[in-house]
Design goal:
There is one protein chain. It contains 13 helices and 15 strands. Strands 5, 6, 13, 14 and 15 form a five-stranded antiparallel β-sheet that branches. Strands 2-3-1-4 form a four-stranded antiparallel β-sheet, covered by helices on one side. The radius of gyration is 36 Å and the shape is elongated.
């Protein structure tokens, strides 16, 4: 095959130019990321079971889901991790070449079959199914410059007002929030529960019965009776929002008519939904959100869109809330592209000059640089005596002259081709 193109150089040049033209057009459409996507496609399932141990999560959540995932097309293996905080992640790895979009749909269909046997607390929290990406594209931090907001305040604001906006940016595959929204935390006292003959289930049932949103109906709705002049929607009780409302939830009524309220057996306060993980920037309380690149997306364009979205949201930030970037891989990618753009013309010019028999370097350029560019092997000078053996004290690839080298009769610095033709000296040294 090589002889065919050697005998037809014009034909080879035409094919080379066509390939270069196609590559020049397609290079602008290639996905740009810090690392190429060479790993097998993965689908990640994330679940949170509040208050459960790692073993409980593995028995009641992981096992039913894994049983349903068996039999997926192209599925190679399933791995899972559980934490003592109740968090769980299942990674389903598929064979290389599998369409990740089809795989995600199949995983969601199988997951819907497992939801019937999962605990109610898990389904209420929601189950996330995403295309797994292990490396972060950028980590965006939020700090209070004057210290007026603590870590929980910042995290609640980011989760409520920033998280959803950034997740909708084209090219963002997934995100991880280092922080949590506010939640009503109820700290039960086991001794008081025992005193009033109550259980945790009794408290949960009472809270669920009172903390509800009631649809109260409408007055004067259709079909209206004759003479009806009033038409109004009834706004009933809403879900509780303050600790005082939760404290007054009725748990039990004794035989003597006395009541047991939630504040009698528990402490109610407004706090973070979860306290791990936490974020600090330069020892200051902060919140952060880490973004992952979607498969096949352009990281430079995606990060530019993320920064534009943050610039649009920043005028609505609380006073003195500042944005920082603890991790940003965009400079590395930009520098790599710049170096490639600078190197390609040089290598092409050197290769063209080598084929033409000339040199792309000026006459005063170092000989080593010209030899490397031409592709010919370069051997560092080594002092040999007339018998082809190194002179005493000579060191390969060293510049200082050895003892006795000043004598012209003891110096044989011949080129590799001349030594092979003479057949008198052996070659020492290593090619560059």
């Amino acid at each position: 095959m090589s002889a065919f193109f050697i005998d037809r150089p014009i034909f080879a040049w035409v094919i080379g130019l066509i390939l270069m033209l196609i590559g020049g057009v397609e290079i602008f459409q290639l996905p740009i990321a810090q690392y190429p996507s060479i790993a097998a496609p993965q689908i990640s399932i994330t679940v949170t079971y509040p208050g459960a141990s790692a073993q409980t999560v593995a028995d009641t959540v992981v096992r039913p889901i894994q049983q349903q995932l068996n039999g997926l097309d192209g599925l190679e293996y399933i791995s899972s991790t559980t934490q003592s905080s109740g968090a769980m992640e299942i990674d389903a790895t598929f064979k290389q070449g599998t369409d990740i979009n089809i795989a995600q749909v199949q995983v969601q269909n199988k997951l819907s079959l497992a939801e019937a046997v999962l605990p109610t607390e898990v389904t209420q929290q929601g189950i996330r199914v995403t295309k797994a990406t292990k490396s972060f594209m950028v980590v965006i931090g939020f700090i209070s410059a004057d210290g007026s907001m603590n870590a929980q305040d910042i995290a609640d604001y980011v989760a409520s007002n920033v998280q959803d906006s950034l997740s909708r940016v084209s090219g963002v595959g997934d995100y991880t929030l280092f922080g949590a929204e506010y939640a009503m935390r109820i700290w039960l006292d086991p001794a008081k529960l025992y005193k009033y003959a109550l259980t945790v289930g009794d408290v949960t049932t009472a809270i669920s019965a009172e903390n509800i949103q009631v649809s109260s109906g409408e007055i004067g709705g259709l079909p209206a009776s004759k003479g009806q002049r009033l038409d109004a929607t009834i706004i009933g009780p809403t879900r509780y929002e303050t600790p005082k409302q939760f404290e007054n939830i009725l748990l039990k009524v004794n035989l003597n008519g006395s009541q047991v309220l939630l504040k009698d057996v528990a402490r109610v306060e407004l706090g973070a939904q979860i306290y791990s993980p936490t974020a600090k920037i330069n020892h200051a309380p902060a919140a952060a959100i880490a973004l992952k690149l979607a498969a096949g997306a352009n990281q430079l364009a995606t990060e530019a869109a993320v920064r534009a979205q943050l610039a649009a949201l920043q005028p609505y930030f609380p006073p003195r809330l500042k944005i920082v970037y603890p991790l940003d891989t965009e400079p590395f990618i930009t520098l790599s592209i710049t170096e490639v753009v600078k190197t390609l013309p040089r290598r092409q010019a050197a290769a063209a000059a080598s084929r033409a028999g000339g040199s792309a370097f000026p006459p005063n350029a170092p000989r080593q640089a010209r030899r490397r560019a031409s592709g010919r092997p370069h051997f560092d000078r080594l002092h040999l005596d007339c018998a082809g053996r190194p002179c005493e004290g000579a060191v390969p690839n060293s510049r200082p002259e050895p003892a006795g080298a000043a004598d012209p009769g003891r110096r044989c610095a011949l080129a590799a081709g001349r030594r092979r033709a003479a057949g008198r000296a052996r070659l020492y040294g290593a090619p560059f």
